[in-house]
Each structure stands twice: as C-alpha cells, then as structure tokens.
Amino acid sequence: MSRTKKPTPVLRAVGISKASATSTTSEFIFEDVSLSVYPGELVSLKGFSDTAATALLNCLSGLGEPDGGSVFIGDRELTVMRESDRAELRQTHLGLVHGASGLLPILTVAENIELTLRLRGMPAAERHARVDELLELVGLAGCSHQPPSELPADQRWRVGIARAVANQPKVLLIHESEEGDSPASDELVNLLSDVVHDTQVAAIFSTSDLRLIERADRVFEMHNGHLQGPASGHVGKAVSPSNSQLGTSQMIEVPTEIANQSGRKA
C-alpha cells in the first residue's frame, strides 16, 4: 500500500518570540510562535497591527532577529547565519512585497523590478527579457519607463509583486499597512492567488482585506500576542500564554542589499 508523501515546508518558525522595544518590562509583541508554510500555499495573517506584522515578517525574512526560537528556510537555519549569508539567502529564496509604498521612487517601474536580477549578476539582455515577461504577467507592459509615483496604488502593488517574484523565490512575504494600503481590485487579488498557485511559491500575507482572507489556503490570527491557526490543514498553529503590548508602527524594512543598489545603473 503506497503512502502519499507529506510535503516539506519551505519556511518554518519554531517557538520564535519578539520583545517590545518600547517596554521596560518583559512584554512581548509575540511569543513562542510556530508556523510552517508549504509550496503553492497562500497563508493569511489576520488581526495583526502594523507593529506585530512588521516584527514577525522581519524575523521570518532575516531582516530582524527574534529574541528566542529559530527560523528555517528549507533546511537552512536563518537565525544562526551571519548577515552576509542571510542577505544572500534573501536574494535567492525570498521575495518581499512592501505594499504600494515599498518601491524606490528614484527608479522607473522596470528598474525597480530589475534590482534583484542585477544583484544576482544576470546579464543585461536576460534581465531586460525577464522584466518584459514580468510586466506582461502583471498587466503593466506599457508602464516600464514610468516612475512608481505616477501609478495608482493598484498598479504599484503589481510592480511590487513583479519585483518580488523576479528571482523565482521559494517564499513571498507580503505586508499591508494599516493606512489603507490594500490591493484595490478583485483582479489583483486573483493575480496574487494565481501567481502563488501556478508557480508553487509559498506566500504569507498580512492583511485585513476580506477578499484575500477568503482566497487564502489557511488563516492565522493574532490575539494578544498569541498566534492561532486553523482547525484543519497542515500543522502550523501555535498558542502561547503572554500578555503583549504593541509598540510603534512601521513598515517591513527594505533589505540593505536592495537599498544600496538604488542609485546604481548597469
């Protein structure tokens, strides 16, 4: 009798905690959180403040460090790596979408998408072909030379998605801020869902948009620092006893390796 092989998670958080930077006591933004995400899966984080979402996504991407616990990308433990190794892993395995406001304003749409490809050392001809392909994918084929500031929020989201998947990452981490920075159309929600399922990338989305929550394969909620998971699906829920208070709001950070390239041209 054959057995169906259980899929291997592409991202795992094991008992990670993050203390509040604004508190003088042992208060946590989140504590003892465990989560596994699988290929082709769209996971929604519901009920998060900007601070909690930012802190968790930064820890999962290696842009921030948890105060306890471990994060794994595949079989590699992100939380014990040197920063240079974490930066290299982000370039090859992670795609970060910072919402409509996460693009670099001094670059055109095409140059924003091209950044991660340049960091990989991809030849110019291949980069330009890949950018054209991605612009076609997200429905922005005629916008390559525009600055992001000239685009509506819906289209800036599309640019962010194209940039994040340029390197064909294993994991997408997507942050929606509390200031109404949400995908503005059903078409964009469909696009994100199709990209995740068609390319088998694993995606984690912090959102309050009910359309995205309804399209998610699993939904996790934050309650007073406790991450609560769905009753069914892959193992991945975690609940811990903690009374948390959240600090000041901020967006997920832009990786240093991208920010340092913003003024350079090939």
Give your account of this protein's structure.
- By secondary structure, the protein is of the alpha/beta class.
- Helices cover 32% and strands 21% of the residues.
- It contains 8 helices and 10 strands.
- It has helices at 50-61, 83-93, 109-119, 124-137, 153-165, 186-199, 210-215, 256-259; strands at residues 11-19, 28-37, 42-46, 68-73, 76-77, 94-97, 171-175, 202-206, 218-223, 226-228.
- The strands form 2 sheets. It has a 6-stranded mixed sheet with strand order 6-7-8-3-9-10. Strands 2-1-4-5 form a 4-stranded antiparallel sheet, with helices on one face.
- Strand 9 (218-223) and strand 10 form a beta hairpin.
- Helix 3 (109-119) packs across helix 4 (124-137) and helix 4 packs across helix 5.
- It starts with 10 loop residues before the first strand and ends in a 7-residue tail after the last helix.
- The relative contact order is 0.23.
- Mean pLDDT is 80; it is low at 231-254.
